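Researcher: We're teaching a course module on how sequence relates to structure. For the next exercise, students receive a sequence and then see the predicted structure as C-alpha cells, so they can try to spot secondary structure elements on their own. Here is the exercise chain.
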Amino acid sequence: MSYQHAVVWVDHQHATVIDFTVDDKHVVTIASETGQRKLHRRSGIPGSGKAATDHVFYDEVAEALGNAREILIVGPGSAKSEFHRDLQARHAPIATCVVGVESVDHPSDGELLAYAKKYFKRIDALRGNV
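Model: And here is the predicted structure for the students to work with:
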C-alpha cells in the first residue's frame, strides 16, 4: 500500500516509523545492533568522542519509510539531522520527500502520530491541499 505521510522518530539507538493515511496506520520499530553509543571523552585521549555513523541502521530506517510521499523526521538529539544528511547522501529519492526535521523528545506512538497529523495538516494548508 502506498502511504501519503510518514513520520520517523529517531535517536542513535532506536527508530519508530509510522506511515499513515487518513484511516490506516502502520508502525515499525527498528533498533540499532551496534549497542551502546554513548562515548565519554577523557582528557588526553585523541578523537572526537563521537561514535561513527551507523549506516546499516539508517539503511533499515530508510527501507521502513517505503514509498511515503511526504516524510517528517523528528527526534530528541542530533540523530535526526544526521539521519537526514545520510538520506541526502545515500538515499536521494527518499530525501526529496522530507518536508521537515523537528525536535521532539520521547513521545508514545499515539503522541507521535497526533503530532505528525497536526504537522502535515499545516503543511497541506500552506500548499493549498486542504
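Model: If you want an answer key for the exercise: The mean pLDDT is 87. The domain at 5-127 is CATH 3.30.420.60 (Nucleotidyltransferase; domain 5).
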